[in-house]
Amino acid sequence: MNKQYYTTVLNNKYLSSKIFNIIHEIQKDRYSLKYDDIVDIGWMFRHGHIGLAREKIKNNNSNNTDRQQLYIDPKDLFTIVANTDTELFIHLFEQHKHSAVQYYEPFFYMSNHIKNVEVVKYLYEHGFARDVSKSFNLAEIDYKVLKYYLENGWLKPTLYMITSYAWELHNRSKSARTDLKEIIALMIKNLDKNEKVLPGSNHIISLLLSCPVPGLIETLTPYFAPMLNCISFNVRYSYQQALDTIKEREDFLVNANVDTKSHASQTIYHFKAKMAKLHLLPLILLIGKRGDEFFTAWNALSGRIRVINNRIYYHTQKNFAKKMKDHKVVSSRDVKDITTYISSIAMIEL
Questions:
Q1: Are 212 and 277 in contact (CB under 8 A)?
Q2: Which PANTHER family match (predicted)?
Q3: Which of 38, 203, 281, 333 is the most exposed place for a label (fewest CB within 10 A)?
Q4: How confident is the model over 275-311, as pLDDT tens digits?
Q5: Where along the chain do its domains lie?
Q6: Contact partners, residue 69, CB within 8 Å, separation at least 6
Q7: In angstroms, rounded to a whole number, what is the distance separating the alpha carbons of residues 265 and 272?
Q8: CB within 8 Å of 162: residues ≥ 6 apart
């Protein structure tokens, strides 16, 4: 619909009321709301009625004697409104400043970053600047907002702020976002010059072997402690092998091709990520395959697969030796019991 016609109609009190009354009559058995029943601005934003929200606010600001008492939840103001419409946010913030400011403090320190840089600029330039360090969350920050914080001295990045994201992934058994490379690079670029060595470098490398974060290992490598060449990681890896393996797993996550709107795709993605963490990359050939395709892929990997007492074992490095005894299969550190993972594939495909 032409926006000019839409605006003209909605700004006409008689026509807009008539339209909403007709819609209400059509949908009265579905608990629809009348025009005058809709007063929650957050509700309008969440359901895509931003034009309606603007029109109601405009009517309230005019010399209309027929004003409505509109409502805005402070949480909605600092999330969906702030991240959608700068002009409306500023207007509502000024109109409801007392309740908004009361909510702003705890909201700010719950790592809830506003993602609209223009709103952030408005707040910081009107006396509502805050130290971001205490609430920083790598996975939630917007690139432009981060850039504004850094350029204006509101955030002093540390290596811990970056690596804490990997610890969070580990604690929650989650896989990393794949679009943080630019944000990580910007953080590293603005590090304090005194940060020269990352404390606990060996633990961070072991962590990233199980929780790779795309773009992280290359940026952290210059800050790893000296003498790591003398250490083995996760029993089997030398320092360089660990770095190469982490990079391989980062690249794998980036190339997973996830449709973020598809629940099934997300499920398969996290399954793939788990396979990458366990160094079972070739096994991923089985995922998404059906019928003959599945068995073709299975046969291609058959040299690495051994079934013992209804359990399925997979060699992560090479084909099983033909004379390898069952008890050695079970106890080998290069062999994984993949029974539950194969079951997961079956559940995904059902």
A1: yes
A2: ANKYRIN REPEAT PROTEIN-RELATED-RELATED (PTHR31550)
A3: 333
A4: 555 555 555 555 555 666 666 766 777 788 888 888 8
A5: 157-255, 263-349
A6: 39
A7: 10
A8: 138, 184, 187, 188, 216, 219, 220
